């Protein structure tokens, strides 16, 4: 007979989070974590599938007495956005993270934490590992490369899944159940440049700006380090001739960049350039630092006229919120964010994250970027397209989630539709009749080196997840339950 899950098992969650944090799992580094998951399943005798995209599905049978309950899909993505606040700090692409506690928070030394979505992975592993919990049949789905366009979920063969109830564990605010999200895509622009001059240069560096998630934080007024550096250079060019050499900034398409550097030549004296730039920075950002130094030697540079045109062209490209939802106060409908810029030989490469709850408006924004790139003599490539996840008016799963939260916390949870992308839209488009909800513990400043996961929220949210699973496993009909009760009383 089904029993309630009356223990949190939070220590097990943190143990698994520590284990996967030792594994390199930034986007596109997919094999190590996939191998870990397969070994995990094999050691416990659980059925496991690994596909060519390093998506992994692990199945666990229902707890005793709940075999007839409909299966539930538990889903999280394995990759993380690995960023630092300083472009010269080495990112441990082939190493694990250095975790430490800071009061109630878990953090990583010098980098993002990867709680997005490592904590979702850890929740699922703890559930698969625990033989004393009450739950329906579980299809645990671990997707790859979510942070770079939901690539893993897009490549997943959904026909192997029998569940039509999905719990996505990729949200970051306790007490909020997400029931819809925007769709999106990535845009990569390549713009030609010519650098025929060889000149002495300065390097302007911005670092330690707040950064943030380009969907979640797009309305928070966070300065984009790349655009701020370009604006500073444009203001300087209004007073003194400027010759652009190269630009470098950002680490991920879907993160608001916290650092940027521009190398350039200017005929003004160093002290004047330094004072000019720092004055602009002080008026533009409440945190971070601005530095400028004189480089040794000469570097390839664009001519003055071409430098000015390129700076103006980059700043004229659309960025930020383009339209707000009419029926959802404070929620963006359509946006794009410049996340990465690099000088690569004779071209500039720019990476944007595009988001919209309206597919036609997303496509229009993609077309606009393509036309702008072509007008500048370059090109734009669109990839990583994923669908919006439409809000479902009737959701039995959502009601169970709200009931469980009310019972545990003594207050009402909130239901939200968000501007960030979630894989639920892909699952919903491929699994007819899917009922899905996303939630998770409080995780602050995701996609930045200041990311921190609340340990107390982590424990409460895991307890909530176990209560929801127990509710979904309550498959014994009242008549059957009465018969079982009579039998147990007679046996006693």
Structure, briefly:
Strand 22 (443-444) and strand 23 (452-454) form a beta hairpin. The protein has two domains: 10-182 and 388-478, 3-Layer(aba) Sandwich (Aminopeptidase); 185-386, Alpha-Beta Plaits. The chain has twelve helices and 23 strands.
Description:
The protein is an alpha+beta fold. The chain folds into two domains: 10-182 and 388-478, Zn peptidases (Aminopeptidase, 3-Layer(aba) Sandwich); 185-386, 2-Layer Sandwich (Alpha-Beta Plaits). 31% of the residues lie in helices and 29% in strands. The chain has twelve helices and 23 strands. It has helices at 10-21, 31-43, 115-129, 151-155, 225-237, 270-282, 304-316, 359-375, 396-409, 424-430, 455-472, 478-491; strands spanning 47-50, 56-60, 72-77, 99-102, 105-108, 138-143, 165-168, 176-181, 183-192, 197-207, 212-213, 242-249, 255-256, 260-266, 289-301, 320-324, 332-344, 347-356, 379-386, 414-418, 435-438, 443-444, 452-454. The strands form five sheets. Strands 9, 10, 12, 14, 15, 16, 17, 18 and 19 form a nine-stranded antiparallel sheet that branches. A hairpin with a 2-residue loop joins strand 4 and strand 5. Helix 1 (10-21) crosses helix 3 and helix 5 packs across helix 7 (304-316). The radius of gyration is 25 Å and the shape is elongated.
Keywords:
alpha+beta, Aminopeptidase, Alpha-Beta Plaits, 2 domains, nine-stranded antiparallel beta sheet, six-stranded mixed beta sheet, 29% strand
- Mean of pLDDT: 91
Strand content: 25-35%
CATH level 3 topology of the largest domain:
Aminopeptidase
Termini gap: 16 Å
Please estimate the helix content: 25-40%
Tell me which CATH architecture of the largest domain applies here: 3-Layer(aba) Sandwich
Low-confidence stretches: 476-484
The count of domains is 2
Computed over alpha carbons, the radius of gyration is: 25 Å
CATH class (first level) name of the largest domain: Alpha Beta
Shape: elongated
Structural class: alpha+beta
Number of helices: 12
The CATH superfamily of the largest domain bears the name: Zn peptidases
Q: Outline the biggest β-sheet.
A: 9 strands, antiparallel
What is the count of β-strands? 23
């Amino acid at each position: 007979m089904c029993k309630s899950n009356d223990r949190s098992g939070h220590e097990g969650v943190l143990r698994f989070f520590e284990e996967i944090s030792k594994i390199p799992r930034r986007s596109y580094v997919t094999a190590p974590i996939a191998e870990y998951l397969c070994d995990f399943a094999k050691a416990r005798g659980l059925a496991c599938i690994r596909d060519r995209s390093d998506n992994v599905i692990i199945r666990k049978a229902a707890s005793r007495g709940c075999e007839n309950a409909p299966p539930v899909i538990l889903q999280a993505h394995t990759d993380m956005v690995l960023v630092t606040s300083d472009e010269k700090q080495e990112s441990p692409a082939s190493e694990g993270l250095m975790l430490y506690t800071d009061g109630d928070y878990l953090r990583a030394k010098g980098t993002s934490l990867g709680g997005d979505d490592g904590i979702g992975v850890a929740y699922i592993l703890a559930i698969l590992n625990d033989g004393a919990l009450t739950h329906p049949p579980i299809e645990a789905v671990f997707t790859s490369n979510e942070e770079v366009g939901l690539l893993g979920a897009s490549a997943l063969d959904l026909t192997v899944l029998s569940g039509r109830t999905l719990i996505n564990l990729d949200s970051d605010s306790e007490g909020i159940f997400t029931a819809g999200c925007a769709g999106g895509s990535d845009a990569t622009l390549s713009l030609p440049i010519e650098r025929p001059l060889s000149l002495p240069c300065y390097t302007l560096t911005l670092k330690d700006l707040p950064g943030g998630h380009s969907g979640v934080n797009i309305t928070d007024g966070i300065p984009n380090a790349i655009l701020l550096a370009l604006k500073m250079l444009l203001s300087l060019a209004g007073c003194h001739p400027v010759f652009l050499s190269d630009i470098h900034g950002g680490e991920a398409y879907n993160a608001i960049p916290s650092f940027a550097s521009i190398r350039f030549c200017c005929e003004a004296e160093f002290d004047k350039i330094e004072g000019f730039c720092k004055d602009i920075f002080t008026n533009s950002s409440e945190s971070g630092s601005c530095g400028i130094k004189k480089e040794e030697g000469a570097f390839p540079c664009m001519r003055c006229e071409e430098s000015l045109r390129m700076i103006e062209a980059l700043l004229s490209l659309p960025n930020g919120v383009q339209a707000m939802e009419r029926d959802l106060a404070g929620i963006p409908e359509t946006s794009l964010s410049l996340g990465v810029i690099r000088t690569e030989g004779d071209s500039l490469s720019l990476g944007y994250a595009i988001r919209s709850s309206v597919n036609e408006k997303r496509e229009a924004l993609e077309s606009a970027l393509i036309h702008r790139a072509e007008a500048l003599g370059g090109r734009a490539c669109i990839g990583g397209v994923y669908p919006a996840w439409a809000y479902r008016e009737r959701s039995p799963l959502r009601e169970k989630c709200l009931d469980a939260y009310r019972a545990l916390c003594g207050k009402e949870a909130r239901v939200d539709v968000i501007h960030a992308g979630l894989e639920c839209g892909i699952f919903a488009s491929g699994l007819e009749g899917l009922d899905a909800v996303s939630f998770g513990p409080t995780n602050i400043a995701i996609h930045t080196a200041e990311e921190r996961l609340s340990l107390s929220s982590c424990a409460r949210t895991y307890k909530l997840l176990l209560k929801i699973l127990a509710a979904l496993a309550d498959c014994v009909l009242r008549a059957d339950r009465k018969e079982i009760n009579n039998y147990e009383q007679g046996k006693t």
